[in-house]
Prior knowledge:
Elements: E1 2-8, H1 18-24, E2 29-30, E3 33-40, H2 44-58, E4 62-68, E5 75-78, E6 80-82, E7 109-111, H3 116-125, E8 130-133, H4 140-152, E9 158-164, H5 168-171, H6 183-202
Parallel strand pairs: 1-3, 1-4, 4-9, 5-8
Antiparallel strand pairs: 2-3, 5-9, 6-7
Amino acid sequence: MRVLVTGFDSFGGESINPSWEAVKRLPDEILGAEIIKKQLPTEFIAGERELLSALKSAEPSIVICAGQAAGRSAVSIERVAINLRDASIADNALFTPVDEAVSPEGEAAYFVTLPVKAALAALKEAGIPAELSLSAGSFVCNDILYTLLRSTEGTGIAAGFVHVPLCPAQAEKKSPPPPSMSIEDMAKALEIILTKTIKTKETEP
């Protein structure tokens, strides 16, 4: 079994992106499944292109993308992506779409195909602050999730998205400091979600 896990490069004036820092810390194998790690650019067009390329080359059974969500205090397992690009800041390619569709031919929304409630329970049991989220926003994170779910619809691939808070090094530079979480805890959370998803996938007929 191959598993694709992605994080983003830094954006918005930050020097790091905790989503990628957490992904880098994942082991190369979980329960016998190969973990393939990929950094995506925080760009609408290039991010989508690189995600689709990674899907084609990896041929994964599971895909989990991760992104930074400043202001959140818990690991957020997203449940849905919407067909909307509406950016309040420019992406790293200086593109600022407003009220645009991710895909004119796509559905209004797609739901993730991860075992979200089982993963949430496992995170809480491990003592990691966690929540389910009904909004991945309308910036690049939602764009990537929408593209992922639309391209994997009907394939049997388990796919979804996890938002992580800022890390302490980012938060301490802001006034007042927003919520943060250690990168080690973020990586542990991703590993727990992956473990639960792999176990679920292995029981499928």
